[in-house]
Amino acid sequence: MIPHWALLGFIEVSMSKHIRNKFNCGIGRLLGLTAILFLPTLVGAQEAAPAGNGLPTGAGQEKPQDDKAESKKLVDNFRFNFELGGQLVDVSGERPSKFEEFGRIREGFTVRRFRIASNPSGSPDFFRVIGRGAGEIDQQYFVDVGRYGTFRTTFQYDGMPHLFSEGARTLYTGGNGVITVPDSVRTTLQNTPDASIPAVVQGLYDTAPSIRIQTKRHTTSFDQTVQLTKDWSLRFNWMRIQRNGAAPLGIGSYERIGTSSGDTFRVHSLEVPNEVDFVTDQVTFGTSFLRRNWGISFDYIYSNFKNGNPSLTFDNVFRITDLQATSSGNFDRQKFARGIFANAPGNSSQSFAISAFVDLPYNTRAAAALGWSFGRQDEQFVPYTLNSAIVTGVPAGLNITSASSLPKQNLDGQVDVFTQEYVIASSPWKAWSFNARFRRYDNQVKTEEILFPGYAGYGESYWRSNISGVLIANDQKSFNKSNVITEAAWDINKAFRVKFEYEWEGWERHHRQAERTNEHSFSTQVTFKPVSQFTNRVSYKYSDKKPENYYSGLLEYSGLRMFDQAGRKRNDFDWQWQWAIQPKVGLSGTVGYLDDDYDENFFGLVKYTQWYGTVDLMYMPKDNMTVYATYSHEKYKNSLKTIAKSGSPTWSLNNAWNRDERDILDNFGVGVTTYAMKDKLLLDLNYVYSNANTRTTTVNPGVPNANTVLSATAHPFPDVKSRLQEFDSDVSYQFGTNWGLGVRYKYQPYTLDDFALNSLSPYPINDLPAGQDGRRFLLLDSRYSSHKAHLFTVYIRIDR
Amino acid sequence: MASTNKLKMVLLALFSLAVFGWAISSTLSPALGVSVEGESATLGTIAGGNLDDYVGSETCKACHEDQFKNFANTVHGKVAETKRWKDQAQGCESCHGPGKEHVDRAGDKTKIITFKNRSAKANSQTCIACHSQTSTHATWRGSKHESAGLSCLDCHSVHHSPGAKASEFAPFANLEAETKLLKKRTENETCYQCHSDVRKSEYQRSTHLFKNENRESKMTCSACHDAHGSVGEKLLKTASLNDTCYTCHAEKRGPFLWEHAPARENCANCHKSHGSNHASLLKARAPMLCQSCHMQGRHQTVAGKPNSAFMNNRNCLNCHAQVHGSNHPSGINLQR
User: Are the beta carbons of B300 and A715 closer than 8 angstroms?
Assistant: First the structure.
């Protein structure tokens, strides 16, 4: 369990370096310290080292190892590369968190990167240690040692933050799965008339601290492979992923308020910082016995996920005492004084896999792979609710605030997965190849059904014993998926190659809408290579998916078809080409088009189209200079057909509306890497432009009923736009045999214009549309928007 | 699903029978591994041929010094030093075949195996002669990349890798390229040769293709995919996409008391794994994405206008936070 202060650490008051350093990992500090301690030794060694030939140590050239060429020992062939420097970071913008979303950039001293390696010629031994960002929150290390053909040992560590937002605000404090709001605040708000609540809440937020919402992921792994004999190998892997910090969590409900022009809504929602304390351990053991013409492998994987905070108990900011909703309708929700939330449950999985292949006559290989996996989950259930005021409809003698009164204390969840794959790959004639593959994934839910007497609904404020007549019980949503794939490829001549493919994919699902879907696909691919420098690969695929026995169920409109189980016709076209215009100029590109047509007689997703084109250019005017440019343009479009629910009739076609969402993306990149001044000067320039635009349009094909205009009338939506530009320049000069200086400058402007976030605030009551009551709608205001960032680094390179 | 179990058993039995029958027949066949374009994969050497026809790498060095120097520090250049291969490897001639005639005829290119004008199948066969005995390459035959007509040399540079040269400058970016002898400086760039539509994901609003501050990729394609073939679709390392995702996102694995079936079946129902124009790698904005399967119901999302409580912030997830599944007895609507 993370102590109380740890959560508070992630709900920082500011970005002070003191707080930043809290996340520095011990490993990083150790390696960073080691690097610093080594520094004088290395610099000293520089003078003692024999003079080289003056070649740079940067990309494009490796220092010759002639001075040690006669030695095959690792220890005699070590090479060191260190880059140490100082950084300045200037970030501006209203909410600039995007700049450090997945990486923390330190100001001041930094270990940019280091590499210690030995790879002597004539020896099968190798050793490599690389790292970056030692001592920082965002740091990486990789250790790799081995003897080719005998063993290899690797160790990796990667620390990666995920910054959701700086500048968020909350009224909550706490940790260890319990967050609270002062009782005095809750008492005041409970006793405040609705009309006065906004002023009180606004006053609280005026003094609420600005916080940072962030998690950090530590991934550590150890790999060991051993070649026991010429044919027999062993492999072992251990990986631990730890994730801690806090992430935003929305806990809400709403009430419907009837008006003459339709229903409007009162929103209750409490967005809270949810403490994250995840640890996943995975151990893999495998062994293979492989001969040239046959082989067999076995793998065992054990994965265990543990959540240090399996539940979150949180205060209701607006109540100090429990209350039951006034009726079973949609009124007076979210009346609990303290709520409880079930976080991701701890779980484990064990997998066994065995695979084998054998080569047969006529250049044929048969292969098979079978796998069994067993998933288990037995995290303790939390009680139905902590709201002790709920009594109406609760079965006599049932204490709904105690977990002991539940039908079972945990799910005792079991999911067994059985996988099979059989492959025949044959090339009986020089020009022909045939493949046949059968694959099946069988996901069997073995969890027993639990029939609950009801649940605490309407924001934990009222007891519901059913939903539209459906009892409260978990479904065993087992499914299986089968594929049969056959391919035939014909190399007509050196210029032409044709491939034909047929695939059948079948799904069987339990407790879902479509019992079964069948999809048949036919595809062809033509590879055309008129000259060795020019390659084209064109492919087209047509698929037809049909559901059997689609049943909408009691809770969804009968005219709806969920897209993953709906009938669909797909056309998929792709053209790839590569042209080596001359040895120093390469041009390549792709063009692709895909469309999914669903049955427009139903509601739901009716069409999806995707179009893209890319062009890449690579130009090497000199051996020590590379110029590259890339461009891509993409367009996606989802077309949705839906309908607003009304009183009577429940589903009136007058209330239908259609929505199209269209994305256009443009990406452009250009760069140059070159060495000049006898390869002493290294110049690396890169510029990237990425622009995206999402346009949403809604239309009513008919005229909405008068009493539904608030919920069925189409409205325009502003475009959502994001644009990232990044200019990165790195210039270094090799002053001596063993050292050089470099300067790096990076400029990154980013803009985001998203209507869902633009008007956000911790208390967005004044931003909601007229009629929508958001007096009890509290958010974290966890977001990022636009920024401009400058990063300037001066570094010294030390090589030996 | 009793019928499907029977089907499985029948298929398994048929497959076993077929393989057994064919395997028996193979004992009657004199040749295992039919040669391609005249190359044999037998005779105790990698490239085949008469042992007297091999001249040794030092002879090659005399004319091909640059290639030799680059090659020497690669894993291939060290094969002869390894316990496993030293009795089989013939240096340069392991792949290029016996060089005696090539040398005797003053470097006649027609008398040595070169890879520029050979078929993809023939080129790969040369590599597979050794690499089929490594667990990572045993699935190459019949894989998507093989059937697409690619050869090992479309991705790998056997003599040397640009990644190896650049590794001192940017060690993490070039790590995979260096250790795997890739043709490009980085692993991702190698894959982008054909999958160039994925490159843009590196700069999308949400991405899995993270980079560190030095612009080096932290997430490489091989974190999820095995380019040499696998039991999963789309060359995924595991049997299903979800199993791949659960490797790092085990909190989504469950099983849960209340499952969200589309999430259980396929993460790609809602997410784009490489990158997305929307938050959280979503295929489309919520609530539009959710409404692909769920009618608006009583939720005010079409008329709610852009600033509606059902449209702003995390929209549907403002209340339905447990879209991957809930383990709360009152979480049937995925709200707790």
Answer: no
Q: Please identify among residues 176-215 of chain A the ones whose CB lies closer than 8 Å to any CB of chain B.
A: none
Long-range residue pairs from A37-40, CB within 8 A, at least 24 positions apart, any chain: A38/A80, A38/A82, A39/A82, A39/A84, A39/A798
Q: Which residues in chain A are closer than 8 Å to B66, comparing Cβ atoms?
A: none
Measuring CA to CA, which residue among A115, A117, A116, A122 is closest to residue A71? A122
- Whole-number Å distance between alpha carbons of A218 and A242: 5
As a residue count, chain A comes to 800
ipTM of this predicted complex? 0.89
Q: Give the gap in angstroms from C-alpha B247 to the nearest C-alpha of chain A.
A: 8
Sign of CA dihedral B259, B262, B263, B264: positive
From residue A288, alpha-carbon distances to A124, A239, A302, A317 in Å are 22, 21, 18, 59
Alpha helix stretches (DSSP H) within chain B: 2-27, 57-63, 65-72, 93-96, 100-104, 120-131, 144-147, 162-166, 175-179, 187-192, 241-248, 261-265, 288-291
B176 — phi, psi (to 5°)? Answer: -65, -40
User: Over the stretch A591-634, which tens digit does the pLDDT of each residue have?
Assistant: 999 999 999 999 999 999 999 999 999 999 988 889 999 999 99
Distance CA A776, CA A194 (A): 9
| Three-state DSSP class for residue A67 | helix
pLDDT tens digit sequence for A346-361: 999 999 999 999 999 9
Instruction: Convert the pLDDT of each residue in A122-146 to its tens digit.
Output: 889 999 999 998 888 889 999 999 9
Residues in chain B within 8 Å Cβ distance of A241 = 248, 250
Q: Which of A799, A517, A447, A537 is nearest to B150 (CA)?
A: A537
Q: For A641-651, what is each residue's pLDDT tens digit?
A: 988 887 777 88
Query: Residue-wise over A588-607: b if at least 16 C-beta within 10 A, else e?
Result: bbbbbbbebbbeeebbbbbb
How many residues in total does chain B contain? 336
Facing residue for A256 by CB, picked from B253, B298, B322: B298
Residue of B nearest to A708 (CA): B303
Classify A236 as helix, strand or coil: strand
The whole-angstrom distance between B238's CA and the closest CA on chain A is 10
For residue A499, the chain B residues in CB contact (below 8 A) are 147-149
Q: Does A707 touch chain B (CB under 8 A)?
A: no
- From chain B, the residues in CB contact with A150 under 8 A are 82-84
Q: Does B79 touch chain A (CB under 8 A)?
A: yes
Tell me the pLDDT of chain A averaged across its residues.
88
